[in-house]
Amino acid sequence: MTNEIKPINMPKWGMEMSEGDINAWYFAVGDQVNAGDDLVDIETSKIINTVTATDSGILRAILGATGETHAVGALLGVIASAETSDADIQAFINSNSSAAAGPEAVTEAAAPVSAAVETAPAPAPATIPQAASGLSKLAEGEDDSLVAASPVARRLAAEYGVNLNNITGTGRHDRVSKWDLEAAVVAAGGQLIGNNRSASSTVHYGDDSNVKATPVARRIATQLGINLLECRVSGDRGRVCKADVEAVAALKNKIPAQTDSNTTVSSNTVASQPISGMRKTIAARLQASKQTAPHFRVHIDAEIDALLAVRKQINSSNTDAKVSVNDFIVKACASALIKVPALNVQFDGEQLSYFSNADISVAVAIDDGLITPIVSDANHKGLVEISNTTRDLATRAKLGRLKPEEFQGGSFCISNLGMYGIKQFDAIINPPQGAILAVGAGEQRPVVKDGELAVATVMSLTLSSDHRIIDGAVAAQFMSVLKGYLEQPATMLG
Amino acid sequence: MTTQQFDLMVVGGGPGGYVAAIRAAQLGFKTALVEKQHLGGVCLNWGCIPTKALLRGADIAHTLKEAEHFGFTVDNLSFDIKKLVQHSRSVASKLTQGVAYLMQKNGITVIDGTASLADKCLLDVEQDGKVTQYKATHIILATGARARNLPSIEIDGDRVWGAREAMTPTALPSKLLVIGAGAIGVEFASLYNDLGSDVTLVEAEQRITPAEDADISALAEKAFVQRGIKILTNSIVQSLDSSGADTVALISGPNGEQHLEFDQVILAVGITGNIENLGLESLKVETEKGFLQADGFGKTNLAGLYAIGDVAGPPWLAHKASHEAVICVEKIAGVDAVKPLNKDQVPGCTYCRPQIASVGLTEAQAKAAGHSIRIGRFNLNANGKALAINEAEGLVKTVFDEQSGELLGAHMIGPEVTEQIQGFGIAQQLEATEYELAQSIFAHPTVSESMHESVLDSLGIALHK
Fold it and tell me: DSSP letter at B463?
């Protein structure tokens, strides 16, 4: 086996890693490498870590040059003995470098990888990189979520990319223990994950069809013939717990397994940026908005005495409601946007998108900035629901605990500075939205009614619109409808 | 002056309230805590901690009594109960200062005064006749509870003590009547018996510690009787006559009525929530039988109002209050995967001698809930360590669901079992089955080996039985 050729692959550190940047190689082509040596530093969006050599030999080829980005599983280099011919190295590279499908070790008489991309009969998800060592044999097989395994063994199996169907369990009820798993990994020529976890290139993370579950949940599931993939994951550390299995059992009807475990994948860089980053984002976005969107403003006053009376009624008759004036404005805007859909839009400079529901962003001041959580489907929500949703969103906005989808998007924005006693102001449109409403304080003002002087609680509202897509008449129409809803709140509560 | 505003305000500085404030501050809430008397609440000042300080004295008394068994001759013994009380009070005050430090460290505004709700999200705090109003998006009530009186018998602080008076005695009662054999009554009965009082314990239910598994109660009763505590179960104290030198209690029981004389009475018949003068009625906040009604995360029916700890109902335990505090605040903050309180996973500890500790369902409860169960039992008289320390009176009882292997309940009585129950608690939380527990290696020689044996016994393979 002196001419065995060993690949160096892009590792997968964590579920979210799909690619990595080559930061630095510790060796040049032709250098002698010993097992355990640091080989190459890889940078992901989260960490920089080092891949160590699992085999000794000469570094014969480097395919991932410093500065390049490669997909998980991609062939980055080749280690082989000095005797191995260049032609063999090249053949190995040719059969292994076909991108993300992942290389197979040449010693395995497996189907060519390039073909596998198309035929792909594997039941496992396509993103899994197959291990290049003997471990790849252990990776194959049917869905192993029904295999009895200890929680630790199951988690380790996911880290090694091992399918539990290939492990003989020696525990009670033939349950796979950590010991069984590690023995199988060693027998297959794999290297045990030591303390320096993630650093070895033979460690291929992957099989996310592995479901973590508590022992009780697993046993109940086995008894009831329930696939753990069907279960909600509400246990600690992402484990399926007893209640999850029972919920499925109660349903009886097995819904096809659909474990969308990455529902909250953050594709969003805004949320993870430090405060200064948020400020930078605000600066860039508002400057772009002001420069690219020709703002024009329309202004209207609304008398809100009737609204205040309704608010008082709702709050005193309903213990679980603390409806604010702003909640009424959200509801009124939602109703008005449905009535004047030309304002319920997003515009990216090319494409104009209309929305059937009103997703209303509400500006919330937070430490060192502001954020606009979204009351989605506000047109379908009642006042109390809007109120409770807004309170929850504002609470979490201040704590920095909003999910990206809770503040990204929206078809209209409301900025209310009334609580500071501001009478009236103009706001800058929150792109790609088409308009924003600036709300001032409700205050008692003299008004003329039927030629007589009277006192009413009046609120000044100013709409800023993007004139590229919204015309003056449309903005005026919206404001007039909005005023109608605010002055006769019963009309929007129907 | 504009109203001061907080994201979250907590009313009550006990183990529910102060923990809620700390967790809230950790999560970034602008937080305030209102306390009318002592930070630390009943637990630190008048409950868990000072009683444990006293019970340490009881342990020493017991040790001295059995010193001869180990070859020591102890004479010229004297005991000054004032010193023991002094120790207890100094521990309490130390911990109260510790809580004040934690508040300061976490940037929590501590407001001295008595709070009441003025409206939704609006709190009036009165101090020295001056009322200040505060606004808070979220208000957590953690006002605790206090000892309950009986219709015919009230705590007067003189002849009839509540827990508070019972932990600050100036003299040792010679003949003591303890009414109520729940955790508090049993602890005081055990304490004063060890210190030398002649104790009679009266319980209306058919056994002492009625909330515990029947096997545990039976063993506790046996141990108490051996120690010379008189136990009257199925019995009710009808009236107390304190007009004479002694207090005469009229006690009715299975054998009719009897008059018994005591120089001191402790009333420990349960507790009632501190729900008065909080402005709850006018805001229509739901209460039931003296306690606030809240969901699994402490949310009440009033917008922005939450209730945790004793005032939110049983079990009335400090660690339950602290746990509720954390889940309530985390739920408000939208922390992922917060789970509502599972009352079957709240351990209960009674610090009498021998100690009692349990978690989950009793055998009777498990059966009533329809489980087919597997029971494990192990007596401490087969445990080497328990024999070595001459405390071999005790039992570890485990209740498993036969099908799933879930640990439904664990019930222990014996030395330091209150320190051991967590082992079962962790197993329960991790949803371990009897198999994982059986596979675990318990150190020898320990009292806790009996936990292992009890689990093995449930599988019919106990090694030392």
Answer: S
Note whether B304 and B121 are within 8 A (CB): yes
Helices H / strands E in chain A, number of each: 14, 18
B304–A391 C-beta distance less than 8 A: yes
d(CA B357, CA A360): 53
B339, A239 Cβ separation under 8 angstroms: no
Do A320 and B435 make contact, defined as CB atoms within 8 angstroms?
Answer: no
The phi, psi pair for B138, rounded to 5°, reads: -130, 130
What's residue A206's pLDDT?
A: 32
Tokens of A191: 């290297």
Residue B105 CA to residue B103 CA, distance in Å, equals 6
Structure tokens that stand for A485 in this block: 């809803």
Q: Which residues of A104-135 are buried (b: 16+ CB within 10 A; e: fewer)?
A: bbbeeebeebeebeeeeeeebeebbbbbbbbb
- The DSSP string of A94-111 is HHH-SGGG----TTS-PP
**Cα distance between residue A60 and residue A40, in whole Å:** 14
CB A393 within 8 A of CB A371: no
Which among B419, B457, B465 is positioned nearest to B438, based on CA atoms? B457
Whether the bond between B151 and the residue before it is cis, its omega within 30 degrees of 0, is: no
Rounded Cα gap, residues A377 and A359, in angstroms: 5
- Helix or strand holding residue A242 (H, E): helix A242-251
Count: domains in chain B: 3
B212 and B200 housed in the same domain: yes
The answer to whether A390 touches B323, Cβ cutoff 8 Å, is no
CA distance A72 to A82: 28
Task: Give contacts of A320 with chain B, Cβ < 8 Å.
Answer: 301-303
A480 reaches B (C-beta below 8 A): no
Q: Please name the residue of chain A whose CA is at the shortest distance from the CA of residue B342.
A: A243
Domain limits for position B435 = 354-458
For residue A56, give both structure tokens.
Answer: 């000794």
Residues of chain A falling short of pLDDT 70: 1-3, 14-16, 45-47, 97-134, 172, 193-210, 251-277, 494
Tell me the Cα Rg of chain B: 23
Please indicate, yes or no, whether residues B396 and B418 belong to a single structural domain of this protein.
yes
Q: Is the four-CA dihedral B308, B311, B312, B318 of positive or negative sign?
A: positive
Burial B151-182 (b: 16+ CB within 10 A, else e): eebebeeebbbbbbbbbbbeeebebbbbbbbb
User: How does pLDDT run across B329-385, given as a tens digit for each residue?
Assistant: 999 999 988 999 999 999 999 999 999 999 999 999 999 999 999 999 999 999 999
Query: Which CATH number fits the domain that encloses residue B431?
Result: 3.30.390.30
ipTM of the complex in this document: 0.78
CB contact under 8 A, A319 and B302: yes
SS3 content of chain A, % helix, strand, coil (to 5): 35, 20, 40
**Of A158, A115, A121, nearest to A139 (Cα)?**
A158
B60 and B169 together in one domain: no
Query: How many CB atoms sit inside 10 A of residue B451's CB?
Result: 25
CB < 8 Å from B in window 421-450 of A: none
Q: Which domains does chain A have, with CATH numbers?
A: 5-187 (2.40.50.100), 270-492 (3.30.559.10)
User: Span B133-152, mean pLDDT?
Assistant: 95
Rounded Cα distance between B338 and B329, Å, is 10
B315: preceding bond cis by omega (within 30 degrees): yes
* Beta-carbon separation of A216 and B403 below 8 A: no
Give the C-alpha separation, B124 to B36, whole Å: 12
Tell me the C-alpha distance between B213 and B408, whole Å: 12
Do B314 and B399 belong together in one domain?
Answer: no
Cis peptide before A432 (omega within 30 of 0): yes
How big is the CA angle at A459 (ends A455 and A461), to the nearest 5 degrees? 145
Question: B270, B170, B175: which is closest to B229 by C-alpha?
Answer: B175
